[in-house]
Amino acid sequence: MLNPGKLPLLLFVVIIFMARCGGQISEGESHSADRYVEVYLHYGSDADEVFSKVHWYEGLTAMAALQYCAAVSTRPVGEYVFVSAIDTFHNQRGGMVWYYTVNGDPATKLAISNSLNAGDVVRWRYCDDVCSTK
After folding, report:
1. Is 5 within a domain?
2. What is the pLDDT of residue 75?
3. What's the CA dihedral at 37, 73, 125, 88 to 10 degrees?
4. Is the pLDDT of residue 24 over 70?
């Protein structure tokens, strides 16, 4: 039976062992905490672009990356979820709205279902609505 007085020492040894073994990375491997995506926000034609670096993890979506960088409002429509505002800049049908690209290509999926890869560059632009009629 384990002496209760030695329990703190045993826990300390286990924690040190786990930290030592879990922290090693083999040559050529990259720890996921060292991987990231870049997120740029452009709030309109006269505004400067704002840059954020978000740590990448498996399953990170364009929506989740955006939520790490700004206050985001969404609007559900049926089974879909659309970005309706970023910070205080709200979509205005036929006016200004948010569009995004991944690695320079226009998005082909809603942000909530668009999984990113480490190293991706996501740009959100607040610009004229070219999809809706006024």
Report:
1. no
2. 95
3. -120
4. no
